[in-house]
Amino acid sequence: MSYWKTLAGWIVAAVVALSLTGCGNIKKIKEIQVTSVGVKYVAPTSPRSVDAVLLLEIDNPAMGLTLSDVDGTVRKDGEVLGFFTAGELPLQGKSIQVYELPCTATLADNISIVRIMGLLAQMSLDGMTVDITLHVKLDNGMGRTLTFKDLALSQLTR
Hints:
The chain has helices spanning about 1-20, 115-120, 155, and strands at about 35-45, 50-60, 65-75, 80-85, 90, 95-105, 130-140, 145-150. The protein is an alpha+beta fold. It has a single domain, classed as Immunoglobulin-like (Sandwich). The two termini are about 15 Å apart. It is about 20% helix and about 55% strand. The longest helix has 18 residues, at about 1-20. Strands 1, 2, 3, 4, 5, 6, 7 and 8 form an 8-stranded antiparallel β-sheet that branches.
């Protein structure tokens, strides 16, 4: 479940980063919060990948925006564990709503499902980092592709 909470953390990180890029008229973007995370379903698509739909309750006091083209890599102590992608997520402005976010996670070639299950059983994100690239487009037409490197998963899920 912490993997899914982390995805919600990436969303918050993305919108906060956008607010730091000089868009003075969108100061409230810093106030966007993911208030709860759930899983609608998880379906294995192969022995090495799953599709899932996350349920994200998001409090957005700012203008509307859309997140898209989400791609990322998850690492443990520098070793690549897997990759993820997520679908488009339009956030309505000045609202609190639950959104569905489709996503896919795939294991790296050298990582076994047994190893991942062992990591999940430890219930610790220590040493785990993520690289993520996504596009953020505001309803006013402004947009930007953002890239984050080596984000500590333990920090994003607090």
